[in-house]
Amino acid sequence: ATFGNLSDRLADTFKNLRTKGKLSAADVDGTVREIRRALLDADVALDVVKEFTATVRERALGDEVNKALNPAQQVVQIVNEELVRILGGQQRRLEFAKRPPTVIMLAGLQGAGKTTLAGKLARWLAKDGHTPVLVAADLQRPNAVNQLQIVGGQAGVPVFAPEPGNGVGNPVKVAKDGVAWAVQKQHDVVIVDTAGRLGVDAEMMKQAADIRRAIDPDEVLFVIDAMIGQDAVATAKAFQEGVDFTGVVLTKLDGDARGGAALSVASVTGRPIVFASTGESLGDFEPFHPDRMASRILDLGDILTLIEQAQAAFDEEEALKVAEKFATDTFTLDDFLKQMQQLRNMGSIKKMMGMLPGAGAMKQQLDNFDEQEIVRTEAIIQSMTVAERTNPKLLNGSRRLRIARGSGMTVTDVNQLVTRFEQAAKMMKTVAKGGVPNMPGMGPI
Ligand code: GDP
Asked: Which stretches are transmembrane (predicted)?
């Protein structure tokens, strides 16, 4: 779906953020770089991306400290707030004229979804107690008038269309006549559908500007297909210059668009997104909420889960089992080895250490581990008998010598391993007595 890929990319970025301590400038820069790439790949306009990432960076490095949130959550929160901001901030409602009828003009490229939107908007308004009428001023596309009559019928609202021989070929006159007709029939909203072209052209824009001048609309809604990607900004700017729209409607948000149009248009034009269209049927339509859209892009629920999972580091069940072993003094060298192997499996040990629950205490020790050390540890432990692994107290001098020889290590290596194991077991036992180390609470976002 739209934003699917962007959501995944952002989630990956946040997942890699440390949850403890303070983010370093390097952490922040790395994250901002990934966000920048994700936004550019989603077709968000370069200027918008630059400003967005600069603000996120500045805020993430700033003193904005919220004690209830860990560093990763704070970055997510900042990104969320900045997304809301570039999407227009507050929800912008449709503006009605003080004296009806409210005149709404639709403009946009052909195929953007104007005609469909006219029907959706009319139905939505009618449900809300209004008495809208549609005006077919798109005389360019052969079937446009007919299509508007069909959606009008589906929405249950009247459609004003040029009579054969009267106004055909003159969209400005049709638009004016349509508004006059609505006034006379006491409809309180008039929605004027205008012609689009496949690309922006001067003639189309002049026609739209002429209609705007003739009917003096309360709202001019620029309808834009979220799928048009990189062209969104140029198209939006051309329409802003040409008809000076008052609001934006994003269509086809149900499609596989990368979403850049949605994220760029409001920001680049300074005009709010008023509605979103999410399908072909008349009900697939909703007022646009910047905050909801941002949450959807960030997939906040999912991201929070990911951060939680990262905090739990590895399989929670396994962690509980290990804690239980510490508490009951049944943690063995086999378990020790297994834990280390698990760490290795999960990639960089050092990176993982920051995410292990209760790892702070062991961090110092484990921080010094390297791949070779795991290999050595493996060799040593595998040279032990089952009895020795289960009960390291059996490890007297002669057994240690035997193990050293068997593993190709020195007795000192063996001694060090046993000491480290005992220290870890002792420390973890203390921690475990107070229960499993608590994960830091997930604060509100
Ligand atoms: P117009 O040329 O701007 O009037 O565009 P139309 O209203 O004729 O729409 C062009 C095509 O896009 C039609 O096939 C519509 O059914 C389709 N369409 C319009 N809005 C949406 C939407 O939100 N989602 C999807 N999937 N299709 C849409």
From this structure: none
CA distances from 308 to 106, 169, 322, 432 (A): 46, 62, 19, 20
For the full predicted model, state whether its pTM sits above 0.80.
no
Alpha helices in 255-299 (DSSP H): 260-269, 290-298
The answer to whether 95 touches 164, Cβ cutoff 8 Å, is: no
Q: How far is the CA of 227 from the centre of ligand 1 (A)?
A: 11
Q: Is residue 442 part of a domain?
A: no
Q: What is the pLDDT of residues 220-234, one digit of tens each?
A: 999 999 888 788 899
The answer, yes or no, to whether any atom of ligand 1 lies below 6 A from the CB of 115, is: yes
Q: What total number of domains does the chain contain? A: 3
Which of 115, 116, 135, 228 has most ligand 1 atoms within 8 Å of its beta carbon, as the pocket-test mutant?
116
Residue 226: which of 267, 278, 179 has the closest Cα? 278
The whole domain housing 238 covers: 102-288
Output the CA 122–ligand 1 centroid distance in Å. Answer: 15
User: Does the beta carbon of 116 sit less than 6 angstroms from any atom of ligand 1?
Assistant: yes
CA–CA dist 53, 51 (Å, integer) = 6
Same domain, 248 and 360: no
Cα(first)–Cα(last) distance of the chain, in Å? 24
Tell me the CATH number at 75: 1.20.120.140
**pLDDT per residue as tens digits for the range 283-309:** 999 999 898 888 888 876 555 555 555
Give yes or no for residue 111 CB within 6 A of ligand 1.
yes
C-alpha 135 – ligand 1 centre gap (Å)? 18
Q: Are 54 and 47 in contact (CB under 8 A)?
A: no
Question: Residue with the nearest Cα to atom 2 of ligand 1?
Answer: 111
The pLDDT tens digits for 72-125 are 888 888 999 999 999 999 899 999 999 999 999 999 999 999 999 999 999 999
Tokens of 278: 């999410």
- For the CA of 109, the closest atom of ligand 1 is 3
Does residue 445 sit within a domain?
no
ipTM metric? 0.98
Banded pLDDT at 273 (limits 50, 70, 90)? very high
37, 78: one domain: yes
Clarify whether residues 262 and 330 are in a common domain.
no
**For residue 95, is it within any domain?**
no
CATH assignment of the domain containing 110: 3.40.50.300
Binding residues for GTP: 108-115, 193-197, 251-254
Residue nearest to atom 12 of ligand 1 (CA): 113
Residue 354 lies in a domain: yes
User: In the predicted model, what is the mean pLDDT of the chain?
Assistant: 82
